[in-house]
Amino acid sequence: MAGVLAIALIPLPAAASEPSRAAPRADEPISLTVWPARTVLPSTARRHHRIVHVVNGTSSPQRIDTERAEFDQTTDGRIDFHPPGPVSAASWIAVSPSSFRLGPRETKEVRVDVTVPERPEPGERYVGVLFKTQPQPAPGNVQVAGALASQFLINVPGRATHRIVAKGIRAPRVAFWGPVRLTLPIRNAGNVHRSYTGSQRIVAEVGNDRLAFPEFTVLGNSRRTVTAQWPDPPLFCFCTASVTLATGNGTSVTRTARIVVIPLPQMIGLLAAALGLFLLTRKGVRYQRALLAAARQGRR
Q1: pLDDT string in tens for the chain (300-residue length)
Q2: For residue 223, with 0-12 CB atoms within 10 Å meaning exposed, 13-18 middle and 19 or more buried, which class applies?
Q3: Calpha distance 30→135 (Å, rounded)
């Protein structure tokens, strides 16, 4: 899976250092691009060789250092990087060059070699190669550095477990107007990632409407929560939202939720109009009665 990552800014405490003659201009924003953003390595080989492209989008030179880190995924899809542990798959990766200089508008090809050891535990490993710029001055007592990562999803030989668990759709039991929010929590109980993209994209069916959830990937032993919007429900209905998704092992599951749509604002408006008409009619009747009573008094 390929993609492009744009720079992320990380504020760092200011530190004393000798100024570099090739330092970037302080008034120029950091601009760095790394691609591919994600690479999936198959389990059919123990050795892999890949190229990552790093692009300096500024008119100033940049000094780039690399690091290896493990990563995992939060329920909203954010990728969190953390230092590798003692038995991390980060030790399987070699980066060359590990540090380098990027000239203005220059693109650098960085070689990433992955060597899977003998008899690792089956499943998938998640390692990121981080590309970090040197800190540069910013307003205030801070320095700003950028860090990007190219993600590697490393499949190892052995049994791959595919098991997606979706307990149900979260939706309001009663809705008065749109949009209606549909939330689908998913747990990947397997040891490899699962992507719901393209023809595998999850779609909810509600009456005659089809609501597409965003494309996403859930890593092995991770959870994701995705949402879709039903923007224009009918004025009144007893509806069933239905979602069918592939579990990854050749089967699929269907989850449903009941939604009752009641036009409460319209009902309140009608009641208010009816009440106003009633009060106006009642007042008119009283006024007519008062006129009749006054006429009778005048005849006497």
Answers
A1: 455 554 434 333 333 333 333 445 555 566 889 999 999 999 999 999 999 999 998 888 999 999 999 999 999 999 999 999 888 999 999 999 999 999 999 999 999 999 999 988 889 999 999 999 877 665 555 545 578 999 999 999 888 999 999 989 999 999 888 899 999 999 999 999 999 999 889 999 998 899 999 999 999 999 999 999 999 888 888 999 999 988 877 889 999 999 998 875 656 666 677 666 777 777 766 767 766 766 677 666
A2: middle
A3: 10
Of 201, 292, 279, 280, the residue nearest 245 (C-alpha) = 201
In 3-state terms, what secondary structure has residue 120? coil
Question: For residue 300, what are its two tokens?
Answer: 């006497």
**Gap between the Cα atoms of 254 and 36, Å rounded:** 34
CATH 2.60.40.10 fits domain 5-156: yes
In the chain, where are the structural domains located?
5-156, 164-261, 264-300
What's the rounded Cα separation, in Å, for the pair 176 and 223?
31
By C-alpha distance, which of 245, 234, 261, 267 is closest to 171? 261
- Cα–Cα dist 90/152, whole Å: 10
Yes or no: domain 164-261 corresponds to CATH 2.40.160.10: no
Tokens describing residue 275: 């009440």
Whether 5-156 and 164-261 share one fold: the answer is yes
The token pair that represents 173 in the structure block: 């039991």
DSSP state of 201: -
Q: Per the structure block, which two tokens stand in for 285?
A: 């009747």
d(CA 112, CA 110): 7
